[in-house]
């Protein structure tokens, strides 16, 4: 009787990165022209599809407002109108203003100085700002400042739940978010520290790519690069042992699970 090799969840997640990288290639994230644009995008993408964020960024760029200097001086009402396509503009506009106030007060208005701060203290200070949760703070740290911080979004949570990487499955709350960060950190722990920012960057972008194509609210497992990993779930193992045919099991276990 043939049985699956034994891999723990962090090893499986690291292998998922390799499989997705081969399937999709380099993602070149974050899609932005400047460090400040990354930060603005991280705020605007909260509870919003990226296409809507792109419309808001285009409005800001057309108005010449996609810079620290201009966003400092623009009236809040005008800023709200420019970012309206992203939704929640009455919350996001003051939040952006609050970030700039924090930057000016704590780092003399310098993004370079903020980027040079130590990761954990800076993360805590970002989390204390209005409308900044874990995902927003970590996206700023990773994509704007190049800190080695994993970003865990809803797509990664679905992958972890559907592939049974964590028990209990990660909930949509701070504890669940932190469990995903810990899992991702463990997955890349053996990689050189200097390589981790790029690895975290690519991994998050790759999970978004597979999430959009296959792991949205309703799973679409046909052709998913990660389908074979479902062999490691309880149902997938049972089918593998009985059938000893991974090409058959991958699809059947995926459809059974979802």
Word description of this protein:
This protein has 258 residues and is mainly alpha-helical. The model is unreliable at 235-258 (pLDDT under 50). It is built from 14 helices and no strands. α2 (35-44) packs antiparallel against α9 (134-144), α5 packs across α6 (89-107) and α8 crosses α9. The chain is globular and about 60 Å long. It starts with 8 loop residues before the first helix and ends with a helix. Helix content is 62%, strand content 0%. It has a single domain, classed as Endonuclease III, domain 1. It has helices at residues 9-24, 35-44, 50-62, 68-73, 76-82, 89-107, 111-115, 119-127, 134-144, 154-162, 174-187, 196-214, 234-243, 246-257.
Main attributes?
Endonuclease III, domain 1; 62% helix; mainly alpha; 258 residues; disordered C terminus; globular
What's the helix count? 14
Q: What share of the residues lie within helices?
A: 55-70%
CATH architecture: Orthogonal Bundle
**Pairing-aware structural class of the strands and helices?**
mainly alpha
At CATH level 3, the topology is Endonuclease III, domain 1
Q: State the shape.
A: globular
Broad CATH class: Mainly Alpha
CATH superfamily descriptor? Hypothetical protein, domain 2
Mean pLDDT, to the nearest integer, reads 89
Determine Rg (CA atoms, Å): 20 Å
Order of helices and strands: HHHHHHHHHHHHHH
Strand elements, count: 0
Number of domains: 1
Low-pLDDT windows of residues: 235-258
* Intertermini distance: 27 Å
Beta content: under 5%
Tell me the major beta sheet. none
């Amino acid at each position: 009787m043939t049985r699956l090799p034994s891999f723990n969840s962090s090893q499986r997640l690291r292998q998922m990165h390799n499989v997705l990288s081969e399937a999709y290639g380099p993602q070149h994230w974050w899609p932005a022209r400047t460090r400040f644009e990354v930060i603005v995008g991280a705020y605007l993408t909260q509870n919003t599809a990226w296409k809507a964020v792109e419309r808001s960024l285009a409005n800001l760029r057309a108005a010449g407002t996609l810079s620290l200097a201009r966003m400092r001086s623009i009236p809040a009402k005008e800023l709200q109108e420019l970012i309206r396509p992203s939704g929640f503009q009455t919350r996001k506009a003051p939040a952006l203003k609050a970030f700039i106030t924090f930057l000016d007060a704590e780092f003399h208005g310098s993004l370079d100085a903020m980027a040079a701060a130590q990761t954990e203290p800076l993360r805590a200070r970002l989390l204390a700002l209005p409308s900044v949760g874990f995902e927003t703070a970590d996206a700023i740290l990773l994509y704007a400042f190049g800190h080695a911080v994993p970003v865990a979004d809803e797509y990664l949570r679905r992958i972890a739940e559907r592939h049974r990487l964590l028990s209990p499955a990660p909930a949509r709350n701070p504890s669940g978010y932190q469990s995903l960060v810990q899992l991702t950190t463990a997955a890349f722990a053996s990689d050189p520290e200097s390589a981790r920012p790029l690895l975290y960057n690519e991994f998050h972008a790759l999970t978004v790519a597979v999430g959009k194509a296959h792991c949205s609210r309703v799973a679409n497992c046909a052709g998913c690069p990660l389908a074979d990993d479902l062999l490691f779930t309880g149902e997938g193992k049972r089918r593998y042992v009985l059938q000893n045919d991974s090409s058959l099991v991958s699809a059947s276990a995926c459809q059974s699970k979802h």
